[in-house]
Amino acid sequence: xPQSRLIIRPRYGExxxxxxxxxxxxxxxxxxxxxxxxxxxxxxxAELEERGYLLAVVDVGIKYRKSAHYDEELVLITHIASSxxxxxxxxxxxxxxxxxxxxxxxxxxxxxxxxxxPAVLPPDLxxxxxxxxxxxxxxxxxxxxxx
Length: 147
Known about the structure:
Blueprint: E1 4-8, H1 25-40, H2 45-50, E2 54-64, E3 74-83, E4 87-96, E5 101-112, H3 123-138
Antiparallel strand pairs: 1-3, 2-5, 3-4, 4-5
């Protein structure tokens, strides 16, 4: 799967007194995006945790372009950008329903094994990542398309 598409509607508690989404809440949206991405690929994050693996965020970069607002329908596009033996980097683009890019970001996550120490990505996750990167070179989903 090259990309996933998730609809988000900011809740009242996620915005400031002007109805604008508070900047730190975007991190929760990105977490939702990568969790759904993995679920759609057939490897729910909860399953990785049950097996003792964790993906810890070690790097985040966010570019805020336009504000998102309370109860506005947003479209979050998530895809895997790159990986190494022990890390995976996700890219995110958050659009409004008119297709205007509001925010772009990346997170790099490092794999921790059952002992909570750095570990190589499990083979099934590694395969999923390689397939996703390969598929991403072949095609992409736009904000108005279904995954």
